[in-house]
């Protein structure tokens, strides 16, 4: 379970890096006076504001789903093994078809 949190932290840090790069791009074009650049900056700033909330929401939902799956697998491990086996058989059959 510790690796799940590590992966979530890595994903969150990567998204923050992307957001920081986009913010730096907005700041770098602040002196430009072209109308197209102004419109692009406004759209990017708007999208950045929306993305910040969405990333947090997605991260929370992802962690809840992973924790739920982890609990289910610990409670009923044979169901998980059987389901994986059946999915592997189906996938193998599907891939072997011509």
From TrEMBL:
Keywords: Membrane, Transmembrane, Transmembrane helix. It comes from the Bacteria. The chain crosses the membrane at residues 78-96. This is ElaB/YqjD/DUF883 family membrane-anchored ribosome-binding protein. It comes from Desulfoprunum benzoelyticum.
């Amino acid at each position: 379970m510790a690796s799940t949190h590590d992966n979530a932290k890595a994903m969150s840090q990567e998204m923050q890096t992307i957001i920081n790069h986009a913010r730096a791009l907005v700041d770098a074009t602040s002196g430009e006076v072209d109308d197209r650049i102004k419109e692009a900056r406004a759209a990017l700033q708007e999208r950045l504001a929306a993305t910040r909330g969405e990333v947090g929401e997605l991260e929370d939902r992802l962690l809840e789903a992973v924790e739920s799956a982890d609990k289910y697998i610990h409670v009923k491990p044979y169901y998980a093994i059987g389901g994986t086996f059946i999915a592997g058989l189906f996938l193998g059959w599907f891939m072997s078809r011509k």
